[in-house]
Structure formats: structure tokens, C-alpha cells
Amino acid sequence: MEKYDNTNRGAMFKNDRKKTENHPDLGGTIDVGGTEYYINAWKKESKAGAPFYSLSVKLKEPKEAVASESPFE
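and the corresponding C-alpha cells:
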């Protein structure tokens, strides 16, 4: 069985642990050019009333380097 190539792909899921407005509405991971990142999104509204998502990305460190990191914080 061939391994699926996730290069330049990602997925986001609803953050069921959101407790404050500062916590993201969505979170997940994305691969860009073979490097993995955490990605978070906050649903917002423009001054004109149009909905949009504000995004942030953070380099996903190897598990050995990070004791307990959550992509939703």
C-alpha cells in the first residue's frame, strides 16, 4: 500500500475546547512544501458586516522537542 502524499494539504476542525473569545474557533495542521504547521482560525466580521476567518500558523515542532503542545492554544 502506497503512503498518501499530504504535501501542500491540511485539515481544520471545530475547537470543542473553546472557552474564551481568544481561543480559536477552528484548528488543525497543514503541510507546506514538506514542513508541517499548526493552523488556527477565528471567525470574525468586517466593518461592512462580511464574515471572514483570521488565521495564524505556527511551526509544528517534533514531538521530542515539545512536552505537551496543543494546536488549540
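(Above: one complete record from the training split.) The chain has a mean pLDDT of 89.
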